[in-house]
Known about the structure:
- With 223 residues, this protein is α+β, with helices and mostly antiparallel strands.
- It is built from 4 helices and 8 strands, in the order E-H-H-E-E-E-H-E-H-E-E-E.
Amino acid sequence: MATLLLRLQGPMQSWGTTSRFDERDTQLEPSKSGVIGLLCAALGRDRSEPVDDLAALRMGVRVDREGVPMRDYQTATGVVAATGKRDLARTVVSPRYYLSDAAFLVGLEGDRAVLERTHHALRHPVWPLALGRKSFVPSVPVYVPDGLIEADLQTALRKWPWLLGEGKEQPESWRMVLEDKSEGSVRLDQPVAPFSARRFGPRFVKSLIVSAGDEHVPDPALA
């Protein structure tokens, strides 16, 4: 089983899954739709093109540093009303939520040929990569050298060195979020059509607290 690792680290990230109208939310870790969107940018894949091959990959996240939830106050004028008319006198308040100073190791498990193409694209991306929003750029490369490994998703996430580098000790325990086939919390971030259609279905995820001394933590998708 092959797993591809990505490093998502930057001053600001935003991974919305339930945003509606003027308010833009963020999850506490990367969404699958957001990560696949990042991969599409690396591959140079247009929003109208299918993403079935990428959506079929199983995703997991290791939280190396929890982000600090922040709220940005934004306003817009000249917004088109429900009647179809633009009201220049109307001001719309649009709260935008994001994570500050977060660091995530993301794993994608699945077809090796798909992962090989994606790994190459991350090293030589066609379009700029962003952490959920175009203005939120990574502070370090998303591409992880030697990040395509022969291991299942949980093993790959568990064994890979801590992202924060020298001088930052790995904590005694950390949080991991793994996609599951049938159990867990529901996230509405599974792409079921090209991104231009804006259609997302549910998927299950399970959160685990992993300790450094644990010999083996059962993978919920394999149990």
